[in-house]
Write a structure and sequence with these properties.
The complex is a heterodimer of chains A (107) and B (122). Chain A is mainly beta. Chain A is built from no helices and 11 strands. In chain A, 0% of the residues lie in helices and 50% in strands. In chain B, the strands form 2 sheets. In chain B, strands 2, 4, 5, 6, 9, 10 and 11 form a 7-stranded mixed sheet that branches. A 4-stranded antiparallel sheet of chain B has the order 1-3-8-7, with no helix packed on it. Chain B is mainly beta. Classes of the chains: A mainly beta (107), B mainly beta (122). At the A-B interface, strand 5 and strand 10 of A face strand 5, strand 9 and strand 10 of B.
């Protein structure tokens, strides 16, 4: 199975900050990479797919990039509703696998 | 509006069985791969199983192979997960999720249910 590693594990930031979360795959995944946001006691919500495609309804301050084994999620200007846990997921091969999550907290 | 509503979770003893259901609405259920994804308390997400549109292909994570069975009834717009020989480590919230993508077996999860909690404990 492809192993997904996120960094950092947790992050404290302020409203208005620019934030970047990184995700590494143990082998190339050809941009078959999705990002999800999860708030406490809620289901995950798809934010980005194919590494850089924004899901309908997701604010444009979110963006994704990367290729091969290295991918990033960037939030250009943090808003209060963005504080949550973010997961990356590869869907290049079965079993699909998730990163361990990055918890974004208010500083 | 796409909706996925899970049911069937609860408290079960180790070695016991449980059947989860997921009722789908707001889309053509028979056109999509469907999956179960779980999340142990305070932990990350783990894909459990998936099933092709017509039920002809099914895949499982190694830890549940031989114990869990995924199935679907397209006439009822429903997805199921039969869980046997349950272990403490199966304790988790189980989510039903719809798969989307343009390549066989390569799909992301664009809609999720609210989840149902399964607790395996004596």
């Amino acid at each position: 199975a492809i192993r997904m590693t996120q960094s950092p594990f947790s992050l404290s930031a302020s409203v208005g900050d620019r934030v970047t979360i990184t995700c590494w795959a143990s082998q190339g995944i050809s941009s078959y990479l999705a990002w999800y946001q999860q708030k406490p006691a809620k289901a995950p919500k798809l934010f980005i797919y194919y590494a850089s495609s924004l899901q309908s309804g997701v604010p444009s301050r979110f963006s994704g990039s990367g290729s091969g084994t290295d991918y990033t999620l960037t939030i250009s200007s943090l808003q209060p509703e963005d504080f949550a846990t973010y997961y990356c997921q590869q869907y290049y091969s079965t079993p699909v696998t998730f990163g361990q999550g990055t918890r974004l907290e208010i500083k | 509006e796409v909706q996925l509503v899970e049911s069937g979770g609860g408290l079960v003893q180790p070695g016991g069985s449980l059947r989860l259901s997921c009722a789908a609405s707001g889309f053509t259920f028979s056109s999509y791969w469907m999956s179960w994804v779980r999340q142990a308390p305070g932990k990350g997400l783990e894909w459990v199983a998936n099933i092709k549109q017509d039920g002809s292909e099914k895949y499982y994570v190694d830890s549940v192979k031989g114990r869990f069975t995924i199935s679907r009834d397209n006439a009822k717009n429903s997805l199921y997960l039969q869980m046997n020989s349950l272990r403490a480590e199966d304790t988790a919230v189980y989510y039903c999720a719809r798969g989307s993508g343009d390549y066989p077996l390569r799909y992301y999860f664009d809609y999720w249910g609210q989840g149902t909690l399964v607790t395996v404990s004596s």
